[in-house]
Amino acid sequence: MLMEGFATAAQPEYLLYALLGVTLGTAVGVLPGIGPAMTVALLLPLTYTLEPTAALIIFAGIYYGGMYGGSTTSILLNTPGESASIVTALEGNKMAKAGRGAAALATAAIGSFVAGTIATVLLTLLAPAIADVAVKLGPADYVALMVVAFTTVAALLGSSPVRGLASLGLGLFIGLVGTDTLTGQQRFTLGITTMADGIDVVVVAVGVFAVGEALYVASRLRHGPIEVIPVGGRWMTGEFWKRSWKPWLRGTFIGFPIGTVPAGGADVSTFLSYAAEKKLSKRPEEFGKGAIEGVAGPEAANNAAAAGVLVPLLTLGLPTTATAAVIVAAFQSYGIQPGPLLFTNNGPMVWALIASLYIGNVMLLVLNLPLVKIWVKVLQIPRPYLYAGILLFAALGTYAVNFVVDDLIVLLIIGVIGFFMRRHGYPVAPLVVGLILGPMTEEQVRRTLQISEGDLSALVTSPFAAVAYSVLAVLLVVAVALRLRRRKSEVTV
Amino acid sequence: MIAAKVEEYAFGGLVAAVGVFTLVDATTIAGRDDNVVGPRAFPYAVGILLVVTGIAAIIATARGKLGQAEDAEDVDENVRTDWLTVAKLVAVLVAHLVLIDVIGWPVAAALLFFGAAWTLGATWWRALPIAVVLALVVQVVFAYGLGLSLPAGIFEGVPFLDG
């Protein structure tokens, strides 16, 4: 099956799409202010003319590429940001400042490649097996999975569970607007005709990510020249390999499982990998001053987690990050529902997609190791033009969905909401995940209750669902306990 | 600090208000009320979630637990919020969406890019040509590359620009 996938993905046309995807992905990963979620959302309306396989190969390339590009920025830019790469910034930035930038970039790129490839192998092996099991799940089991997914995303992401859940609620609400699929009733449309079709995912994702981010950055823009640390030093040394390979592997095996469960995605995996490397290091005193292990491990973990996220996405149709949620929307726009039946109904397409992940990883290694100088140039784009461009393409992408101005009004309103969410610590990812999962959850709940003739206990009596809810309860208790302990230790320090 | 707190209360209040709206408006959705769950049940649940979390955010704020503003590479943590810039950008976006149907996408887009770049500190004589070229290139690419025609407005009937 995979071989057939390679045969498809290796056709020149698809190779070109993969190259386009990974190049775009690296670019948006490098550039502050735009990320893979928003880029995929922006490209959605433009790719309607493409066939689904081609479009999904581009999106997968953007997804993987974004992970590579982010590390270049955090290593070379003097101002760290973005939590997923903040650990890399900690050590990588120090290395670059000490004239070892080349080694930091190389360990990040090769580590990402190693982790990305191993994790894709794991995905290849695991996904069909999980899909086989998942086919047997009933609607009540799906409800359980979705509730677990969005509760953990909302409660574990960001610093404030309450604000995460509020963000989720807003996403669920936006998902309600439109015509009810089962009864044809209009809900929350305020009598406006264009609202009857609901609010498009593209408009919401572009609004919270692009417009919200642009307004937020503009409100406190860092003025003055952009300080990029020059790349210095050599990396092809024996010591480089000796100190890097173990953290790469450890990072991979920390990142992949964390990616597959809905527990906050890449962020958590990088922190865990960093902590592990610090503990295992023979030179813990170097940590905080530019330890290569502190770049190698987290960068590998980051990419392995990204591949891990694809497991629930492809086999269960469950998005656990904002980018994954937008990719689900992309599948849906082609009339394809990711989930257990994906491998049987759309086998050739999925395998071509997975094969393109392997190919994309090789392309990314080339793009990010010998060609890293190009990205350094991209990093230096003057910020007024960068954010003006983001706003222009946000407006364009939104307008291109239906060619109606009403969508732009919605875009602006959601953008302003996204701006205030950033100011007050409301994470935006739960909103997007809620928007995608909300309608799916409602449908499954109602299907469950139709089968059980209104008996609510049907939602929890399936053994699988009962286990899922118990796991959720345990997870939340552990999370609260960890939070309390951290707060206690902060008080004593 | 006080301003930040007021804003936090307002946003928490907004979340709760959306929740109240959800609950009230859900009662007007027509639906069967037999033993099968209709189109109202889920909205009620979402409304309750919004009201509860909105109020919880207000309580957290009152107890001094303010939300942590997000950090980003281009954000300077040491400067005050520049509301004027935000207002100008919103105005530029409003102008863009109003003008699309009046003078066409290319001009409205050029104005959006120019206005935003200028607001953010770009030199006007450098931003203007970039804005014009960018808008025209996108217009042509859309019309001929993607087969999607953006409203040409004042360029209606002009070869290449009117798809």
Automatic annotation (TrEMBL), chain B:
Q: Where is the DUF1468 domain?
A: 11-151
Which UniProt keywords are listed? Membrane, Transmembrane, Transmembrane helix
Q: Which domain of life is it from?
A: Bacteria
- Which residues span the membrane? 42-62, 89-118, 124-146
Presence of the UniProt keyword Membrane in the record = yes
Parts forming coiled coils: none
**Keyword Transmembrane attached:** yes
Any idea what this protein is called? DUF1468 domain-containing protein
Species lineage? Bacteria, Bacillati, Actinomycetota, Actinomycetes, Pseudonocardiales
